[in-house]
Amino acid sequence: MFERLTERLEQVFKRLRGYGKLKEHHIDEALRQIKVVLLEADVNFKVVREFIAKVSDKSLGERVLESFTPTQQVVKIVRDELIELLGGEKSDLIFSSKIPSIFMLVGLQGCGKTTTAGKLGKWLRKTNHSPLLVSTDVQRPAAQEQIRVVAEESGLPAFSDNSSSPLEVCHNSMKMAKQGGYDVVVVDTAGRMHINKDLMDELSILKKELRPAEILFVADAMTGQDAVKSAKVFNENLDVTGIILTKLDGDARGGAALSIKSVTEKPIKFIGIGERYDDLEPFYPERIVSRILGMGDVLSLIEKAEEAIDRKEAQDLEEKIRKESFTLEDFRSQLRHIERMGPLTQILSLFPGVSKLKGMDLSEISEGDLKRIEAIINSMTIEERLNHTIINGSRRKRIARGSGTSVQEVNQLLRQFDQTKKMIKQLNLISQGKRGAKLPFPFFDGN
Length: 447
Ligand SMILES: Nc1nc2c(ncn2[C@@H]2O[C@H](COP(=O)(O)OP(=O)(O)O)[C@@H](O)[C@H]2O)c(=O)[nH]1
Ligand SMILES: [Mg+2]
Hints:
Layout (H helix, E strand, L loop, with lengths): L2 H16 L5 H17 L4 H15 L2 H4 L4 H16 L15 E6 L6 H14 L4 E5 L5 H13 L4 E2 L6 H15 L3 E5 L8 H14 L3 E7 L4 H14 L3 E5 L8 H10 L3 E5 L7 E3 L2 H9 L2 H13 L2 H13 L4 H8 L7 H8 L3 E4 L9 H12 L3 H5 L6 H11 L3 H25 L12 E3 L1
Parallel strand pairs: 1-4, 1-5, 2-3, 2-4, 5-6, 6-7
Antiparallel strand pairs: 7-8, 9-10
The chain binds guanosine-5'-diphosphate and magnesium ion.
The site of guanosine-5'-diphosphate has 18 residues, from helix 6.
């Protein structure tokens, strides 16, 4: 589903992540690319324009550019706006207070109405309803036979008789529903190749007489903007209550899905993802967007990480790392944050060229180790903390005594800190593109 869209958006974000420091013009450029991607996916151009304007508004503020993770922030804004575009919240079916509820399926020929009647019936059955299927297509000879077959294949009852008017079939089916204790009547209606007045008149009469709880426009996602245009006309004539998008399993580019809610102001309630009667899913905007962005897990990780971090502190630390003025004092304050995924490891992982931190997994340090390290640093004078190179043999002895540890342990900590500093230096060389810069084993893999 939407593979190409996913692929293209990933490329845009990847490029964005590649810049060391994100600038306004980088975001502008990314937005231009996203615009092209959406237009290529056949999203309605007005929808695209509004979408880009909203994302741009939210991305170009200081808050994003100066945040700890500007690219992730932009990704998050794009995600949130895509969710909005798809309707925000999941939208449930509405049942009438009087039994039976009538759900009318409307749409052009071939969009999947009859198949969807079977799918929806099956889904209703699964959610403890008792649906009856009926078709109001009395013109096409095969239509009544077809709804019987669909009902049989999906294990549901269908009503059909030899009535000559759509309204009459409906009224008769209503009687059967009441007698048989069916609480929902799914009404499959006649379609046409193109929108015409006859069809709209017929459907308007049905609407007026039946007072359906739902009029669901069935849209073939494969037809892109054509589906959106007909949705608009059907909605203007019938004031539909929701949309079912079919054939999302095909090579639909995503244009219909991303435009239809915005253009009609009606929610997508279900999606059809295959030809079988089980291939119908309630529509969750958030899940679809995660699929489109192809990074469901990554996004939630980003959110977790952001919660855990004091942004201001993270920025200060990043600055120190870049200027190589990271001291034992900073080291100690980082150790205190280990239980909330300290910014140190995260910032390091943002440096270009560092794919994965290895051996730097501070979470493996035990509680006891932490206490000892902290005690050692506490026993240092402030000069020592700010400049560890002055810590000679006699100072080491004093610190060991003061912290109740051994000189070996003090040495070990200083060695560890030295290695961290070296690693930081190498990272800076790499991010500045210096050749020959290598990451010291055993800290992590470079690439
Ligand atoms: N792949 C796929 N095919 C579908 C889906 N929904 C319907 N179809 C197919 O679309 C064609 C037309 O469906 P039909 O229900 O007869 O459309 P109608 O003319 O609107 O009643 C049939 O071949 C269905 O199997 C879907 O979600 N995915
Ligand atoms: Mg049909």
